[in-house]
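The protein record filed here:
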Amino acid sequence: MRENYLTVKGYGESEIIISKSRFLTYIERAETEEDALIFIERIKKMHHQATHNCSAYIIGEHDHIQKANDDGEPSGTAGVPMLEVLKKQGLKDTVVVVTRYFGGIKLGGGGLIRAYGKATTEGLLAAQVVERKLHHSMKIAIDYTWLGKVENEIRGSDYTLEDIRYLEGVEIIVSVLKEHEDEFRNWITEMTNGQAIVSFEHAHFIEFNVK
């Protein structure tokens, strides 16, 4: 399983006008190629009268699915620069559609490349880029006599306290970055003089906004 990666927070849209042409950008997270194709088709139906509905997407842990479609624009002037923006920003699992309503002024190859690149960049600002970091939910099983100390130490740390289960003993669930798991185990062991049992519960991602 991948650990930390960049993607979009979710749906976003934006609009820019260049030489009287309207460029409408639509962006969404897509974790499968099917998700990407469904999204592209939805936007194309929404703007079936548009001059062009160009698209690009990049999917998979190792970016093994990468597609770009110029939808009638000169080859390499729309879908490819859109895809390049996604790649340059290091994004994964992202699909973008840029709809163009022609304004009567031709932009030329270089102008189109710049326009579709800019439209994609503006769309990403609207969608918000996030970093997804793999965390492990760790269970600390302790006697009630340790609860006050352990809880206070965790709340004052950079770790996230998820839950406290009051059973025969106490189980404290803490969210820890995967790469900090060993450090966390050692910290709890030292804090409780080896009286705590620390175990892995499950893995999950937490998202952080990227400025």
Summary: Strands lie at 4-8, 12-18, 21-29, 52-59, 65-69, 94-101, 129-142, 160-166, 170-177, 197-209. The longest helix spans residues 108-127.
